[in-house]
Each structure stands twice: as C-alpha cells, then as structure tokens.
Amino acid sequence: MWCKKSFIYKFKNFFNLTIQKKYSVIASVLENANIGENAEVRGWVKNLRVQKELIFADVNDGSCAQKLQIIIPKELKTDALTYGSSVHIRGKLSKSPRGQLELVAENVKVLGPCVVLDGYPFNPRTTHPPEYIRQYIHLRSRTNFLSSILRVRSSVTKHIHDFYSSKKYLNVHTPILTSNDCEGAGEVFKVQPDCEDTIKAMMQDGKDKDTVYFGSKTYLTVSGQLHLEAICRGMGNVYTLGPTFRAENARSRLHLSEFYMLEAELAFCYSLEQLQNHIEELLKYIFIETRHTNEADLSLIDKENSKPPAWLQKKFATLTYDEAQDILKKKKVVNTENGLNKEQELALVDYCNGAPVFIVRWPKDLKSFYMKECQDDNTKVEALDLLAPITGEIVGGSLREDDYDRLKSKLPSDKLNWYLELRKFGNIPTGGYGLGLERLLQTMCGITNIKDTLPFPRWPHNCSM
Amino acid sequence: MWCKKSFIYKFKNFFNLTIQKKYSVIASVLENANIGENAEVRGWVKNLRVQKELIFADVNDGSCAQKLQIIIPKELKTDALTYGSSVHIRGKLSKSPRGQLELVAENVKVLGPCVVLDGYPFNPRTTHPPEYIRQYIHLRSRTNFLSSILRVRSSVTKHIHDFYSSKKYLNVHTPILTSNDCEGAGEVFKVQPDCEDTIKAMMQDGKDKDTVYFGSKTYLTVSGQLHLEAICRGMGNVYTLGPTFRAENARSRLHLSEFYMLEAELAFCYSLEQLQNHIEELLKYIFIETRHTNEADLSLIDKENSKPPAWLQKKFATLTYDEAQDILKKKKVVNTENGLNKEQELALVDYCNGAPVFIVRWPKDLKSFYMKECQDDNTKVEALDLLAPITGEIVGGSLREDDYDRLKSKLPSDKLNWYLELRKFGNIPTGGYGLGLERLLQTMCGITNIKDTLPFPRWPHNCSM
User: Fold this and answer.
1) Which domain holds residue A54?
2) Domain count of chain A?
3) Could you tell me which residue, B309 or A21, shows the higher pLDDT?
4) Which of A106, B235, B330, B368 would you call most buried, defined as having the most Cβ atoms within 10 angstroms of its Cβ?
C-alpha cells in the first residue's frame, strides 16, 4: 500500500530539500514574524531617508505590496546603497514608535547597485504616470503600480483554477495553432516557418508557402470554444485559460492583439439561466477572493478599490436585447449600426447603478451560427453578453445549437464538418462563455487602459522584446 | 470592516446560485454516496450487456476513470440506448453481489443516440491502438485511453500551480508574440495578419509585409525565459506555464510544433545545487500528488504505472558532462557530434537504474550565451540537463550570467539590449529552468508517443481542426 503521509514525511526528512531561510520573503516576515527574532531579507530599495545617525530604507521583494522598513546604522552605509539597488540584509526585528514592524540591520550587502543618473527611468518619491512607465516595459515591474497589478493578475489566475477545480471541471489546453479561420472574418494572424530552407525542404507541387508546413493554412486562435466543445462531449464540464489573438488595426484603450481568455463549456446545460448563475458565481468568487488576498495591492492601484463594490451583494440584473434598446432610446444614447456600441454598453451599466448586467435574447443576425435559437421566437438566439463598469462587454456566451440538421444548415464552412459531427454521436446539450481576463482586471482594479493589465502588451506597431 | 465568512454565507443563502443536484457527478457518487439513496447521473454508455430481465450499462461522465454500473429493467430499454449514446438516469443506489456500488434505474432518458454503423469510429469491448484513435481527434476524448490522459494532464497542471503558489511564486503570463527571434536559430514561426486590407491600411514606405503590423518582424515564442528574467528582477521568484513553438521539420515521437513549457526563474539563486534541489522537489511533488489524485487513470493508461517508480524515494544522481562522456565511452554508446543524443541520454538514465539524472557543468560552446561561466573553469558553464526515462532530456536550466560586461561581450544581437540592461540596475543573481509538460507526462504515464499527451497535437503536415 502506497501511504502518502508517511512517505512525504520520510521524503522531506531524508532529503531536506527546501533549505529556505525562515521568513526570508517579506510577505511572510510581515505576516508571521515576532519582535526580537533574527531575520534575513533580500529585495530592492524603494525609498531611502538619511538622518543624522540612522538611515531608513524601505525594502520590497515583490512578494507583497508592503515594504519592510530597515533601520541602518550610519556605519553600515556604502555609496552603492541607493534607491533602486538590490540588497541583502541581516538583522533583528523591532517595533517602530508607530507600532510598525521594522528590521534593525546588523549586516547590509548591496548585490546590485543602481545609478539613476546612468539612465534608470524611475525616480524616488515620484508617482510616474502609466504612459511613462509603459515606455520601459522591461523594467516596469519595479514600479509599485505595475507590480501590484501583476500580483493581482497572478492571484486572479489562481482563484480561477481553484474555482473550476472545486467544481471538478477539466482544464483543457486548447491549441493556439488552428486551421479554423473563424468563419473567414479576416481578423486573424497567419503563421508559417521563418526559415526558407525548411519551407523548401517541405514544399510539394502546387502548394503555396502558407500551407507548406502544416498542409493547410494555419492561424492563431481567436477562441478555444469549438475545441472545448469537442472535449466537453466526451468528458463533461471543461474550461481553458490561455492566450487568444486578433489582427485588428485597433488602438483603443480596450484592445490588444494578444490577450488572455477564460472559456468554459458546461455539459448538460439546458437554460440560459443556468449559464448566467454560473457566470455570476464565478465573477463574485474571483472578486471576493482577490479582495482578501490582495487588499493592499487593490488600494494601491486605485484608491476607489478600498471599498468592495456594492453590486457584490446583489443579484445581477437581466435585460433582453429589446428591453435594452428601449432604455437606450429613452436615454437618447443612439447607434446607427446594429448591436450595442461601447457608449451604449456603459449607459446600460449606468442604468443598473453601475452594476454588471446581462443582455439576453439577441437577434439571430447579430450572433454566431452555433448559437441555439429561442424556442418561442426563431429570430432570436439564446445568447448573453455581460456588461460591466469601465469596459462594457466582459463576457459573451450562449447555449449551443444541439440539433444536427439545424446546425448543418447554418454551418459556414466544410472545414467545420468535425464540429457538426460532434452532434451526430452521443450529443448532449451544452452552453458556454468567454471572459476576457484583461477586461476583468480593468473592471476589478479600475484600470482605464488595458495595456496596463498584463506584463507584455502587444498592439499595432508595438511588440517590443 | 469587510467580513469574508459572514458575507459569503449571506451571499450563498441570498442567491442560492449553485443549484447542483447532489452527487450528480459520477466521481462524487462513487466517493460519497450511500446505498439506498436516490441519485441522478448523466454520461455516456461505455458498455451494454443485455440479459433476460435486466440490462447492465456502464456509464462514464468524464469526471473519473471509473464507470458506474446501471441496472436497467427491460421495460425501460429503448432502441436509442446503445453503446456511445448519452443518457440521463434517475434511480436508487444499491450494492452489486460483488459489493460494488450500482444504480438501479427508475427512469432512463437517451439524450443523444449514437449509431456505430453510421460512422462512429469506436467499438464496444475494443481497445483501439493510439495510432487509430489519433485519426479521430475531435472524438478521441470519448476513449478510455485519451480521457485518462487528459484528466492526468489537468491534474498535473493544478499541482504545478499549487506547488508554486505554496512557495509564493508569481505566475507571469509571458507573451506568445515576440520580436526576439531566439538568436536567429531559424526554427521559429513568423506571424502576420491574414487580411490584405489590414496590411494595405497599415503599410508604410519601405516596410515589408513581415513588419507592417507590429513595426518589426514578429515570431511565436520558443521560450518565456528572457521575459521571466525581467519580471524576476523586479518581483522575485516567478514562473510561467504556457504554449511554446518550434518550426522544425521533425516527426519523431518526441517532437511537436506546439507544446507546453513550464519555466521558472529563481531570485537570489547562487548555486546550481539550489536549482537542482528545487527541480527535484517540484518533480517529486507532481509525481506524488498525481499518483493520489489519478491512481485509476495512471493504471488504465499503462499497467506499469500501478506501482510508484522506485526513484521517487531516492535522491537524483548528478554527473558532470565529462563524467557522463566517460561512462558513455565505456558503454560504447558513441556520438559523432557534440553534446548528447537521445540514445546517449537514455543510456545514462539506464546507468542510473532508470532514475532521473542531472548532467551539470556543460562545455560553454554547447550552451547559450546567457549561461554563467563556472568560476573555476571558464570553458564550462553552470548549466544542467535533467534526463528521465522514456524521453531523455526533460528539464534544461542554468545560472544566468549576472556580470554586465561579460554578458555584453556575449550578447548575440542588439535587439537584446533590454536584456543586458536588466543587469545594470539593481541586478540580482538568478537561475532558472524549462520543463516540457508533454515529456513529463510521457515519463509519468509511460506514453511512448508525445502526440498522445495533449488534446490537439500539431506537427508537420498535421494541424486539423
């Protein structure tokens, strides 16, 4: 019998693998350490105040938003100890006159100096605007603003995995490369080998360069939905979280060429309400959990975040597409095209007191071929958009057409015969959605420009590093 | 004050959001349910045995490897109830003569029929070989073999996130699109918009098509390491788990054009031993946790997996590159080129009784520009490969060159000036590694062909769906 606990016990004792100093990460020091204990921390100097006998250094190591105050006796000061430098400090924990935990240094080692005059773009005691910070993409995680966002993003990712795991959803790695061109909508990137020798070696008669490597033209994915549906029809509830791409020439504060999408497909999903309840539960779970793990980060990113949004305690509103149009007419927020534009989306959120709102029962013509027609009105489909503050549309979803013949009549391409075939053998009713991770972070943190929600943003004319 | 528990309590009671039937997932029924309880399950018929008065159906819903046996009184049988069909069954839990939990059906509804004669590729009571299953990529998650692998893959992913989270590592989403061509090695995919109108609209004088969208030639990433290093130098320990790409014309059972890589960068990492201990701890953690969450899946994939590998309880061996070459000479496993080929890698694993082995202190000429030279021998670098059964190389890592001038002299391209600059401001010593997720799954499960470790494999001439 394979006994877990005793084995791991033996394993830890035998190898003694994790030789980690106690409290070496500042987040743990601030959480768990006691006055009078010895401690050893490493990190970057975020602030330096030189007084007569003492130097006060605020050190942060990226593990949390907070900084640990270090008291450095003047004799331990070196010229290399400057703002931005990396340090290794040994000392004893003490309490400041204000009751704060601080570390009285007994040994200070500067690991890497940092000379602001030599081109370091950030200055002490300065809050740089996001546009400025964005110019230094390789260094910007050293700023309070971006490091807090990256910690929130990492936590949100963790909470997403925990949410689905607790519900026994399967995490599926849907592919980035696909021969499905997404109905030929044209906003896709195509992919081919960069090496002419590889292309020559693989070239067959009558083929063009675009098809030579994979045998068919290949694109970067715009959605993992169709692939998720295939796995869902064999294994039940599934989700995927990964990069998706759009080759649009759009430069708004809401658009990226590469962004993360969370997509899920619910097996045995019979009604849009079932889908709505699930999405609402997911969003509230992420918001609540992140407020607890990253309270300090959220406040640091935007002071408005110090209070939880009121809508967390209320049920999301639901409007049909027709009801939404009536409201917009009354409010005189008009649109010459079909569908909802960004201004209208935000007006509807405003109408719902700044809370997220589901728009359901969309005209069939405005939505995709795979969406299920409403039983009582075949000009409408069982689709939803969830609109949220700051970004407008944050989630899009629907029940999927599960009737083989109806789907066949709407299929946009022969290439999707495999998708049609999923309905032929042991089909089940499903519904699913896609949620833009960056837009979620915008709404959650109050970030107006989407380029500040991820470590390495890509948009037209911008793919540095 | 924002009080979590009471809020969530109110939240759950107020909305009653998760209206999930008790025990509706078969994994939960098998784990938690009691004889005599009512139950309701949904899934696919994996086996059907018709006897005089009763029908025995094995139903699986993807939540676990096990099937639930359903006892169906003959009067509830319909023609649509066949192998492969999807069903919804209500009944009472009972115990079989052999002591197994089974469900005595009171109501049987066939949701989606499945007619094998109409082209369904899988047959009852047949174990199809992986090569056959691979032809039906959109349906193959219905087979026992592939669904078990996908569950193991999902679990391994979860354990990976849990491992780093418990150590407070930051999860960084490194970009897929990059202007870094990986030292011009040539095995990269290039990316451009597919739409001629977009290209025309963005075209500037003197630009070629390859650079028009992003302003510079853009590739699919081969590694997130350099990007991780940037964040590590602002925020400490970091990791990334995501797709990477190689445009090689390689069709071996160990190669894919798109595969997942786990990469981590350790802050304040001073020695290769520190890195080795961390990698060993990670691998053993994943193996041990997955054996517990997916014991039945592992046995189903390969009977050899019913016992844990002996090496889990031993420390990994370490050989220097020179020692390894001496051993290979004695064993007469020769190689006309430099480095280690696959045969040699597996011979070294064999030499270590089938256990993983670290190969360290590599000749500088065989490794990358960013690796740190050994202090006592500048013809060698502080690099490691971890070799494992079935696949050979499974992890590659190194300490990173942290000396500004030495790195500058080795930098392969001006495009990497940002990488050099990381050493100029508050630099810290780091080390890191990359682990191929698919190769890990091969070693863990005993899967000889890498194409069976992921849901949608891509390799030359193969990118269907």
Assistant:
1) 20-126
2) 2
3) B309
4) B235
